[in-house]
Amino acid sequence: MKILVHYPFTNEQHDHLRQIARENGGHEVFVANDEQEALAVASEIDVIVGHFPPAVCAAAPNLRWVQSFSTGMDKFLFPEIIARDEVAISNVAGLYAPQGGEHAWALLLALTRGIDQSIRHNDQRKWAGGATVELTGQTLGLVGLGGFGLEMAKRAAGYDMPIIAIDPVRRDMPPGISELKDNTRENLHSLLRRADVVMIACPRTEETYHLIGREELALMKESAYLINVTRGGIIDEDALSKALHDGQIAGAGIDVTEIEPLPEESPLWDAPNIILTPHRAGASQHRPRKVYEFFCAQLEHYLKGEPVLNIIDKKKGY
Prior knowledge:
The protein is an alpha/beta fold. The chain folds into two domains: 2-93 and 285-303, Rossmann fold; 97-276, Rossmann fold, CATH 3.40.50.720. It has eleven helices and twelve strands. The chain has helices at residues 11-23, 35-41, 54-58, 79-82, 97-112, 115-123, 147-156, 185-194, 214-219, 237-245, 287-303, and strands at residues 2-6, 28-31, 47-50, 65-67, 88-90, 140-143, 163-166, 179-181, 197-200, 225-228, 251-254, 274-276. The strands form two sheets. It has a seven-stranded parallel beta sheet, sandwiched between helices. A five-stranded parallel beta sheet has the order 2-1-3-4-5, with helices on both faces. β10, α10 and β11 form a beta-alpha-beta unit. The longest helix is centred in the C-terminal third of the chain and has 17 residues, at 287-303. The chain is elongated, with a radius of gyration of 22 Å. The two termini are 27 Å apart.
């Protein structure tokens, strides 16, 4: 079996991956630093670890498994790979969830305690604050209860917040969750009406594109906050900008946008009561190590004929 590693690991890490391949069946590892190098060996490849551009996959007739470096798969599931039933794809779902949960709460706390406003006042040498909203006892609504949603819920425990959630798959009630329902439109609208804080924690798919639009924002409380650190495109950004300008909701914390970088002409730049961060929720000082360790474990399982984690449904997108 021939394995392509197309990810910026160190030379030592590449050597360790080669060792894993040798010790588990005498397999061969190729390392590519860019797409051209990957294309040069694609015809021989059975496995890709890391980046898997469409051209490389198309040139790899023997491809059987791809280990992606991403959690969200909306930008990577191109038609050619979806149609190939013989190719399995696994993602890194859950790997970036702890820091994602922290980032969601950082945005929320900055909004509810007026931290963003205080920083702007600091720049003007003004002794002035902003919002002072107490979260204790407020209702948290989670749209999705996968890795990110569970980490968001975990961090709500210290605030004594009732947590209501919707999810298309999960049926077990995790600790700390007050209510869990299927992700129907009716249940989403009920959650939006009841929640004081709404956190988006679902993947972007055909079903979730612009899931939160004008109608949904109009259902939210005027005192409610909306947070999204998962995938751009789930929230209709024009509708969000208008809702903020009209005072339909109290504020929004957004780490991901439909187009990235966010275009200069986006209405979000001028919207009031919004904090924008440049897709940083999944980043942390531990991420490179965690990705490498996960890749090593996954590769070893695969070469031993054991099940690998996080095989996605390519047609559903998660």
